[in-house]
Amino acid sequence: MQVPLLDLKPQYEQIRGEIQTAIAELCASQQFILGQHVEDLEKKIAAYCQCRFACAVSSGSDALLMALMTENIGPGDEVITSPYTFFATAGAISRVGARPVFVDIQPDTCNLNTDLIEAAITPRTKAIIPVHLYGQMVDMDSVMALAERYQLVVIEDAAQAIGAEYMHRQACSMGHYGCLSFFPSKNLGAFGDAGMILCNDPERAEKLKIYRSHGSSPKYYHQYIGGNFRMDAMQAVVLLVKLKFLDSWTSSRQKNADDYQTLLAKVPNLTLPVTATKNNRHVFNQYVIRILGGRRQAVWDGLKAAGIGCDVYYPVPLHLQQCYASLGYSKGDFPESERAAAETLALPIYPELSHIQKRYVADTLASLCK
Ligand SMILES: *Cc1c(COP(=O)(O)O)cnc(C)c1O
């Protein structure tokens, strides 16, 4: 049996007619950049995330970059984040010329250990980027309390977490900015690159829209040095169709996670993901287990040989990446991130997974982990 890590085709089959009609209409209009569809999408995503304002952009990476740019964060500034995330989180900090300062994760959720943030704050610290890894939110009350005490900007990296909730509050609604990615493999995926920035402050919202088009307002009068961070209308059209299905797809992901939890409960030598508090809505962009006893590579190879797709998010924590050698970190600095990098393994969790496929994954894992 083949069980890919992610298969987008069954999802497309459900909505093919609607998508093709919408794209055909867009082609007839020849309106390709920003425009009415992008504005509609901004309104709908803002409402979905319980935020006042949204700014549609070219990718999740550009969303993070723009949030830092509009806050004038740059050389001499420090930004605190997790070393156990996709590179874009730290890359955005470096691209504006600021310095990423890493804080270790907690072992159960792989999210920032908020107890360790305060010790990393210096007079140069300007912002914190909590990453809601795998679809589960960081302990945001602690982050926001620190941010208030030290006057820091909070930029939520919710690229994996659209629809996630913490104490009944939506991802992107708690920080000063929330950044989403619509990369095709995310829970709400476009037909290419796209992203969005959410915020609740009208001045920030206005500034974001100016930065998105080379800092110009009015046209050809440049207040800031922004960039081309605009979203294609094509992506907006696709996302408007898909957004209607997001909650049902998320429920399927959660059902799959529940099923794995039952099927894998008695398998030795692995740790299953946890939902941190009962008020957390985990949207399972990834279902990530840990393989204990130094056997991850062997188990991964075994799954591959059995036709099961898996991956490691992420194999090298950011403080040990070659491009960050100049930051001066070394092995042992963030032991939980390093242990996670050696133990984690993401299993297939996409909504259309069948029960037979889940059983096959669980049975194969059980025989490999004995
Ligand atoms: C995907 C992702 C991003 C970047 O989003 P793109 O749309 O691919 O640029 C940033 N942060 C995290 C945690 C991600 O998973």
Automatic annotation (TrEMBL):
The keyword Nucleotide-binding is assigned to this record: no
GO biological process: polysaccharide biosynthetic process
Signal peptide (from-to): none
Pfam families in alphabetical order: DegT_DnrJ_EryC1
One MF annotation (Gene Ontology) recorded for this entry: pyridoxal phosphate binding
Keyword annotations from UniProtKB, A to Z: Pyridoxal phosphate
Active site residues according to the UniProt entry: K186 (proton acceptor)
Descriptive protein name: dTDP-4-amino-4,6-dideoxygalactose transaminase
Organism expressing this protein natively: Oligosphaera ethanolica
Taxonomic classification: Bacteria, Pseudomonadati, Lentisphaerota, Oligosphaeria, Oligosphaerales
